[in-house]
UniProtKB/TrEMBL annotation:
Keywords: Antiviral defense, Endonuclease, Hydrolase, Nuclease, RNA-binding. It is an enzyme of class 3 (hydrolase). This is pre-crRNA processing endonuclease. GO terms for biological process: defense response to virus; maintenance of CRISPR repeat elements. It comes from Nitrobacter winogradskyi. NCBIfam families: cas_Cas5d, CRISPR_cas5.
Amino acid sequence: MAYGIRLRVAGQWALFTRPEMKSERVSYDVMTPSAARGILEAIHWKPAIQWIVDEIHVLEPIRFQSIRRNEVGAKIPSRAVAAAMRTGNIGTLGLAIEDSRQQRASTVLVDVAYVICARFALTAKAGADDNEGKHLEIFRRRALKGQCFHQPCLGTREFPAQFELIEADAAAHPAIGETRDLGFMLYDIDHAGDRGSMFFRATLDKGVMKVPPPGSPEIRR
């Protein structure tokens, strides 16, 4: 895989929320491609590159646990934010947290570990000094040092992800031997278009979920 990387990520809990679930949070069985991309971008991202996730390897058995989480059921109105920016008065931006707090049940994954196999492509914003080798070395150096722009998470900020770069000559991390149909899974959000959700039919084959490339006919609205 040209200019590809392998990154091991792990955590105590993970929540890759199914969008069809409304009031309660229920996780997909496996990390979504968009969540994997978010972890990679937390380590290194520039407008000149686009991360493309090829495979996600599941290293630990898929186990769920039901918990209850405090969530905020309201947000500051956009009109109030615009008014504060216009007038410089932030007094109207207060939010009564205690009044809007809600306790909701969540079905989360427990003791997760994955290997993200990904690559990147140069975008139309790449300059003359941008090349694949340069960005690969930047990512490699930052990942080895544990550097990131913000703490990567496993679906939600409450569940931080620990990450470790797997060098090209390192021994393979064995995936679980499970094969199953995962159903339709969120692929990504069309940020460049109408911001609609994109899905694909996900399958776990001996612990490996292959992700279709951007523009594939397997990706549906």
